[in-house]
Design a protein that fits this description.
- With 259 residues, this protein is an alpha+beta fold.
- The protein has helices at residues 57-61, 70-74, 107-113, 158-177, 181-188, 192-200, 225-232, and strands spanning 27-33, 42-49, 65-69, 82-92, 95-105, 120-128, 134-143, 207-219.
- Strands 1, 2, 3, 4, 5, 6, 7 and 8 form an 8-stranded mixed β-sheet that branches.
């Protein structure tokens, strides 16, 4: 081959390897704000790619669901078996305003409740709250021995199970349908609905460990920023300055002044 004829040998190939860019350089951190029902308002941080062209960062955050332990939200280790789901509704500055999206029991807690020689009773009910949320509640209960019982087992008859299930559905429907979402969450945290069910079913069969094991939000009403701000109280308005009293300017009358 003649020298100097093959000029392409010296040139680099087209479309060579691109430099590896760290993807985290294009990201931004946002603070997750929990509703005012919980004692800890700032419950974490989340990542999103910065606004580029038509792709807006705040739009990508809306609808994102966060799962947080109730122990972290209320600073109470006794509530660590509950998981709360929070859904991003709005973004204000670098604050992500969330709303209640669901609740669940941890698997280890659920497994620890199940024991031999007794019946497991479950029921669920779909309820509509006063502020337009459609919510499905799942209840779980276990039969227990009567006082001074010698018999090893404590299985309930099918008619008793049906009666207990009917009572569960009645109480869940009654408690959830006459309050809004915020009041319902306040009832779910101390497990007051489970205590009411246990008390009401004592005449049918003695129960133990009655819990609302799961809550699903099936439908939401049309987004209203005012209702979201009610849920959050003062979220996003923490750095507002102190109010300054406005004094009226003194008007001095000048005698004998012609205009």
């Amino acid at each position: 081959m003649a020298v100097g004829k093959n000029k392409r040998l010296t040139k680099s190939k087209k479309g060579g390897k691109k430099k590896a860019v760290d993807p985290f350089l294009k990201k931004e951190w946002y603070d997750i704000k929990a509703p005012s029902v919980f004692s800890v308002r700032k419950c974490g941080k989340t990542l999103i790619t910065r606004t580029q062209g038509t792709k807006i960062a705040s739009e990508g955050l809306k609808g994102r669901v966060f799962e947080v332990s109730l122990a972290d939200l209320n600073n109470d280790e006794d509530q660590q078996y509950r998981k709360i789901k929070l859904c991003c509704e709005d973004v204000q500055g670098y604050n992500v305003l969330t709303n209640f999206h669901g609740m669940d029991l941890t698997r280890d807690k659920l497994c620890s409740l199940i024991k031999k020689w007794g019946s497991l009773i479950e029921a669920n009910e779909t309820v509509r709250t006063t502020d337009g949320y459609t919510i499905r509640l799942f209840c779980i209960a276990f039969t227990t021995k009567m006082p001074n019982q010698m018999k090893k087992t404590c299985y309930a008859q099918s008619a008793q199970i049906r009666a207990i299930r009917k009572k569960m559905v009645e109480i869940m429907s009654e408690e959830a349908s006459k309050c809004d979402l915020k009041e319902l969450v306040q009832k779910l945290i101390p497990e007051s609905i489970g205590a009411d069910i246990e008390k009401a079913c004592q005449c049918i069969f003695p129960l133990r460990d009655v819990y609302i094991r799961k809550v699903k939000v099936l439908k939401k009403p049309k987004f209203d920023i005012l209702k979201l701000m009610e849920m959050h109280g003062d979220a996003g308005n923490e750095d507002t300055g102190a109010g300054v009293s406005r004094e009226e300017p003194l008007v001095e009358e000048v005698k004998g002044l012609k205009v």
